């Protein structure tokens, strides 16, 4: 047998067993008796069995019909359990959203996107993990979050991605630093050779910088100190620890106020795309899809 009975046909057979009448079973299903009779006949042809004896006094299940009706009850009970479980999963999905975001995105962009989402879903609980880009990718692959945001220069394998914002890394120093008032751009080789205040390995900022330095034919950056967030890097530079390469988002106010100075670097392109990521082949639904939509409306 290549085809399976449809649930309504199984439900009709069970109702005939319970009510003892094809007419009453049809009424219970909300269909006309001729339609119910045709459905029962189609079920018998599909199974190759006589299921009901029809007489003027009513409808009686045959021995085969009794067996099939018992199996049908179990099938319908399991289908009801499936529907109930799916409703519960959907309610859980619509009640909470699990997000992981890299540091720069979490500090400067994601809160506004979540705020936009919660204007339309005020009862929604949003759990946000703030970790570096490499950890975000691992977390999304593991299915621990519904949506991730990263700042890596590469498209993570096995994940679907969408660009949600553009960013640029900048070299910054304090106004008293030797690089602050130099008349010509800094050579990329000098940047590579100078110890810098850097994000840790695994961060999108560090990966972007090292990727572009290698493309320029010079070694990866040397760390004076490694810190776990853009805020920490910015604070260290302001305190005079040394130069840093950092997201423009993190130091925009400092550059405008003169607390920090941007240093031009010759032949180095530090622009980057910031991306949302989720498992490839999975369609986003509910709050995850709404959050991704909020990134577009916020641009």
Automatic annotation (TrEMBL):
Keyword vocabulary terms for this entry: DNA-binding, Transcription, Transcription regulation
Residue ranges annotated for the HTH lysR-type domain, each copy included: 5-62
Top-level taxonomic group: Bacteria
Keyword Ribonucleoprotein set for record: no
Gene3D superfamilies, alphabetized: Periplasmic binding protein-like II, Winged helix-like DNA-binding domain superfamily/Winged helix DNA-binding domain
Family membership noted in the UniProt record: Belongs to the LysR transcriptional regulatory family.
Protein's UniProt name: ModE molybdate transport repressor domain-containing protein
Natural source organism: Actinoalloteichus caeruleus DSM 43889
